[in-house]
Specification:
Blueprint (H helix, E strand, L loop, with lengths): L1 E4 L9 H4 L9 H12 L4 E6 L5 E3 L1 H6 L3 E7 L1 E2 L2 E2 L6 E7 L2 H10 L17 E2 L1 E7 L4 E6 L4 E4 L4 H6 L7 E2 L17
Parallel strand pairs: 3-8
Antiparallel strand pairs: 1-11, 1-12, 2-7, 2-9, 4-7, 5-6, 9-10, 10-11
Amino acid sequence: MYVFNKAVYDCHLTEDDVFSDEILSIKGEKFKEFIDLCSSHAAFFSLTRAPWTQSTDANLEMELQPHLITTLKCTKWFCYHVTEKNMLEISIYRATSESIEIILQHLSDLFVDEHHGACPHEPRPTLEDLCFFGTEKLFMGTVSHEYICHVFPPDKDFEQALPQFGKWSWHEDVINDQIFLADYIKL
C-alpha cells in the first residue's frame, strides 16, 4: 500500500520536503488528473458525512443525489474505528462520468481544505473522506481532516502513475484498512 500524507503529518519527510508546496496536497490540475486516474478504475466511490459545525455546504451532496446507491451507518470504515455512539454515515455512489464531474466542480484538493474552509467561519462541504472502489474493494481512501491518503494500486499502470502526484511511501503493515464492499452492501 502507498501512503500520501500532508507534509506536517508524515514522519518520513525531511525538513526540505515540509517546505515544498508540491507535496502539501494533491490540488488544482494535479487533483483533477488524480481523480481522472482513480475514476478510470472505479465502479463506486464513497463520501463520509462531515461532523464539523462549519460543514454546512450541502451543494456537493445534493448534486450527487441521483448517483447515490445507499447510505449506511457503521462503526468501521477506511481508517476509522468509532463507537456506536459516534457512528459514521457513509454514502456510496456509482462512479460515472457525471458523478466524477460533480466532484471536480465542488472540490479542488484531495483533503478538501484548498477550496473550502480557508476561513474558520467559511462553510465546508457536508461530505468528505473521498474513497474509490473497483467492483469489489477499496483502492484509494482518504481521511480529509487527518490529511491521510492510502492507495492499493489496482494495476501496474496505476502504481507507475502515482509519483507524478506527490511523494508516496510504501507500507506493508496497514492492509487492514482496505474495505470490501460486499461486507457492507449487496452488489
